[in-house]
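Quick log. Single chain, no ligands specified.
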Amino acid sequence: MSYIATGTGSTSDNTVSITPNDQNGTEKSGFFRLLLRLIRMKQWIKNGFVFVPLLFLFQIPEVNLVWRCALGALMFCMISSSVYIMNDIADVSKDRNHPVKRNRPIASGAVPLGAAFVLCGILLIVGVTGAAMIRSDLAFIVSAYFLMNVAYSLFLKKIMFIDVFTISMGFILRLCAGYRICRIPISEPSNLWFVFFVAFLTLFIGVGKRCSELKTMGSSSTKSRESLKGCSAEQLNQLIVMLMACTIMSYVMFVYTTGIKYLVLTTPLLLLGVFRYHFLSNGSDLTGSPELIVYKDRPIRWCLVFWALSLAAICFAQSYLI
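-> predicted structure:
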């Protein structure tokens, strides 16, 4: 047993004892927190796209269906966390040269590579097996998501535009998983336009993130992001404006093809959110991490909340009140 003095006087009155069990408990809790950082729980918000098709049932969904969507989203959380660990393992040498990424658990050496490999395998097995128990085609979707990200880690991330297209496809696969769970045909015009909307929106955010990295790190950005070789901030800014226009246009077409006239009322909220993100991409340190915008930028957060609530209210009202 060791003692740490906290003042003057007798040992029994002015010392705090630290037992080996206390030290082991502190070390275990610290390692557990590192593992939570490693699996990127803050990124799990992206898997909420699995729930979006519930809105397009145009009725209050059954509890069983909501439960199946929740399980589907959880399986995507498992798979996406395994992907993040795999990417950290593959990029460990480059992350050590990045001003922010060098503090990640694997890059900093806080989590051994062996432990990261084991955790990655466990999450992958749980995700695919759990998805197969929900729906057989859901297992195919999550497997395609994982394999696509393996290709991304190996070579796709080195090709400009292909890297952001791959990330966008990840969101589309989440959305398709929700459609399959809810048994909603994607071939309907309104559903197709919503898929296009998600594709353009995620491309808009992805290119904005690349532009932020280029502005923040300058010429050294290519050391951690090979796809930025030969790119300039001016070129990416032009592409961002184009994608912003495509995002708004595809959402307007989605609203038009649904045939729900009051759905047009959600368009101003979308415009506010898109314009706010574009504003932040020119001078905010949050743009390099899109999920931080949702957590820390209040206007974006309220736009997202009110847009989702108004979309849900109008879709449900279409069936029960109108």
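The two ends are 73 Å apart (CA to CA).
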